[in-house]
């Protein structure tokens, strides 16, 4: 029983297929009701108009969300050539139009490959959560304020384009590092092609190893859909311990590397018991030792 005599709430990772028109905060609020616990958080926002993979931490897994934020992501979307908007996507007001009828699919593919794939510098859009002088950009944008933003390094692993559902629209598939704005990719593609563009129909297809195949429709989410707590750190190298070492890990003790069984590597490491349950996450320490970055309390 938990404090106050209440039974413990559910623990684990929920992979939700976010519906259009919902903020990530809306999804968290709805999930709290569906799962019967206040302990729900998300690992990275999706725009309200976007759909697709949103990873939630529930119960004890909320403390592990920080290990998910840096995971790579993949998306599908449509790029509308010839029209720029204030938000770089279909939700904004049209700010400029261009005649781009002469642009071919091969033109777009060449620019995407040569200029917008690999390590690139990207200026965050004004409608983003990036902070400048202590204010989030989207807050300034709502006040009609535009400020200079520094370009940030991101990595676009793949940026593929195909014919879209209508003339002047391209289907895009992007795999990228965390922190990449696909709407900015669309706008930059338009500019590089001699005009402008905006994004529509954005759908996130994966976050790290979590894909749409793992996702559950929001309103269908139940505690039975939760993945184990350890799923939140499945991308980390892991080690299995038992006996006295497991007890020491549970007490959060600093250990020699050989004792934990991590002679090589830089970590962090997911420390599991023989059943696969997560006990802790350990990180490198000084003098050939490792220390707990986070210990999971016994359920």
UniProtKB/TrEMBL annotation:
Recorded catalytic activity of this chain's protein: uridine(55) in tRNA = pseudouridine(55) in tRNA
Domain Pseudouridine synthase II N-terminal, residue spans: 32-182
Stored CDD domains: PseudoU_synth_EcTruB (cd02573)
EC number(s) stated in the UniProt entry for this protein: 5.4.99.25
Pfam families associated with the record: TruB_C_2, TruB_N
Single Gene Ontology MF annotation: RNA binding
Superkingdom, natural source: Bacteria
Domain tRNA pseudouridylate synthase B C-terminal: 183-222
Active site: 47 (nucleophile)
BP term (GO), one: mRNA pseudouridine synthesis
The keyword tRNA processing is annotated on this UniProt entry: yes
Keyword set, alphabetical order: Isomerase, tRNA processing
Annotated family: Belongs to the pseudouridine synthase TruB family. Type 1 subfamily.
PANTHER family documented for this protein: PSEUDOURIDYLATE SYNTHASE TRUB1 (PTHR13767:SF2), TRNA-PSEUDOURIDINE SYNTHASE (PTHR13767)
Protein's job: Responsible for synthesis of pseudouridine from uracil-55 in the psi GC loop of transfer RNAs.
Protein name, per record: tRNA pseudouridine synthase B
Organism of derivation: Iamia majanohamensis
